[in-house]
Amino acid sequence: MKPLKITAELLDGRVNSADGLFNLDSLIAYAWMKENEPDRLYNGDIMRDGLIEPDLPLEWREDHWAASSGFYIQVSESIEYWHRHLNGDRAERYVDFNGKRGTINTKSGEYKAYRMPQTIRVIPSIEFYAMGDPIEIDRLLTKYITNIGKKSSQGYGHIKSWTIRPVEEDWTEKGPYGIMRPTPFNGELPNKEVYQVRSYGLKPPYWLKDNQSICLIPNVRRDYLVKSAITDQI
Question: At the top level of its lineage, which domain of life is listed (predicted)?
Fold first, then answer.
């Protein structure tokens, strides 16, 4: 296992993410599941069928993998919308209302119309840090992780290339940007730094409540970190 810096260069920079948090171990775990357990990758009954613990090419540390969150400079942010609306006039031609006049309800139920906001961030690249096997990490990421964030089918978060290089220090826990990954909160802020505190996962799958704890959330936007440093100096 070696200390590594892993960079995702994005094609056009548009990433669909509400909170802007990306975790390297989650990406590698997805790739591992895609290769080893593809039939159970999207299993909604994950606990009922038994939780699969992936064998990731990362160092394991008590309750988490040695991998950081993703850090980046955000160029811009906007809100876009996706819509779902059934064309009632056309659909009613094919619905059997038992000889009576009827309409399809698009205000509630199965055919409800939606206008859903989504946060689109423009991010040229994302950098991660890990303690792991560079060859296997590169293979899994290059083969399986082509997008990052949500709505990849709509072209968001397309990754142009992955770059992995060795570094001298292990920056998976703490590093140049402070806390480098979600860290259990013990009631004190390190070095009087400012962090968001909320329930968050320590390992993938991050949405699973059994994997969650009250954590300090890393400040992943490097543009904010630079602004904060300048403000402190004034």
Answer: Bacteria
